[in-house]
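About this split. The held-out portion is used to measure sequence recovery: a designer receives only the structure tokens and must propose an amino acid at every position. Recovery is the fraction of positions where the proposal matches the reference. Here is one held-out target exactly as it appears in the evaluation file.
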């Protein structure tokens, strides 16, 4: 059988839909469900301006409720599709499918065969912090339901979350040592580099040794810290307040990024994001990162926190992603549960989703 070349696409490449899961009273959102529903409605409204959204729902009652809430907000329901499937929580960046797509030069004889690969890594609730038994089976269940008919699923007995990795679509992976070392303390950096490169079809793995946010329980996911905007550009969360507890570490991370080189040996173009004022839940600092944006067809959806820095962050993203509309989505309710906009979404590459 001819081996089909595969690659890990960048987020800015064409998409068929965005996958999310609707919050309900059986999830950790129960205490502030009304607030977070408003964020989900705003998110779906923004996505459906540009492409479809696939919404996981726990049962028929949740679907009926979500459908009613979305319909009453003048959302294009022709671009909303529901799928009933069990889930523990709604952080689909980490429990959803990591998809490899056909690479260049795929033989014509293979074009009718399954040609997407769903990488189904173990989801352990961020190192066993939370129960994740249903979330860990999400990719398997969606695949068995025929949601992704042109795909094969590859089960990988290795703990990895989608928020921990970032690709430029051209063979370079960006990740953080803190997160991967926390998940796999016995593995060396060389071992982790070789495993990630092999599974994700990458030929370079770049590591950040600094960077972490208070209120983030993912052990420094890269999607809260630094993101590719192009094969030669990185957007990252900066901190310009010397009095802030994050200042030294994020300055050191900025130094890590400045030292990185593209595959052509050049420094990356760098786009530092502004720093929001501290947002507290009682005595707990929440992780208000602007790096947790989502790129979709024709737009970038960015988290907004009701801070003066929101508009400044939008300006930086407009510079980093020229030609794309920048839309702010209110995400203050999300950071109460330690994540933000990118964390609750997973883009599905063009051609993956069944019609």
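Reference sequence for scoring:
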């Amino acid at each position: 059988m001819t081996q089909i070349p595969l690659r890990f696409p960048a987020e800015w490449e064409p998409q068929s839909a965005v996958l999310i899961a609707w919050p309900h009273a059986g999830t950790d959102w129960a205490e502030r469900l009304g607030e977070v529903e408003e964020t989900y409605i705003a998110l779906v409204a923004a996505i459906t301006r540009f492409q479809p959204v696939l919404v996981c729902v726990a049962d028929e009652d949740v679907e009926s409720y979500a459908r009613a809430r979305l319909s009453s907000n003048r959302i294009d329901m022709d671009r909303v599709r529901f799928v009933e499937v069990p889930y523990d929580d709604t952080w689909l960046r980490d429990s959803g499918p990591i998809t490899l797509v056909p690479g260049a030069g795929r033989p014509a004889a293979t074009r009718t065969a399954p040609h997407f690969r769903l990488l189904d890594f173990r989801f352990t609730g961020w190192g066993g912090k939370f129960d994740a038994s249903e979330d860990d089976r999400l990719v398997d269940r969606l695949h068995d339901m025929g949601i992704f008919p042109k795909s094969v699923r590859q089960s990988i007995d290795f703990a990895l979350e989608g928020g921990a990795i970032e690709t430029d679509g051209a063979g370079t992976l960006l990740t953080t040592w803190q997160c991967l070392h926390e998940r796999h303390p016995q593995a060396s950096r060389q071992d982790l580099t070789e495993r990630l490169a092999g599974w994700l079809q990458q030929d370079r793995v770049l590591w950040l040794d600094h960077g972490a946010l208070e209120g983030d329980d993912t052990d420094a996911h890269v999607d809260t810290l630094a993101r590719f905007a192009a094969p030669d550009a990185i957007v990252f969360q900066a901190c310009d307040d010397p009095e802030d507890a994050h200042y030294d570490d994020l300055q050191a991370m900025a130094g890590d990024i400045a030292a990185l080189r593209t595959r052509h040996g050049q420094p990356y173009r760098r786009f530092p994001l502004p720093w929001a004022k501290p947002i507290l839940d009682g005595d707990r600092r929440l992780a208000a990162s602007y790096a947790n944006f989502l790129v979709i067809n024709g737009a970038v959806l960015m988290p907004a926190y009701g801070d003066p820095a929101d508009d400044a962050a939008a300006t930086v993203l407009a510079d980093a992603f020229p030609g794309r509309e920048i839309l702010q989505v209110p995400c203050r309710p999300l950071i109460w549960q330690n994540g933000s906009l990118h964390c609750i979404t997973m883009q599905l590459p063009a051609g993956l989703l069944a019609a």
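Annotator remark: The radius of gyration is 19 Å.
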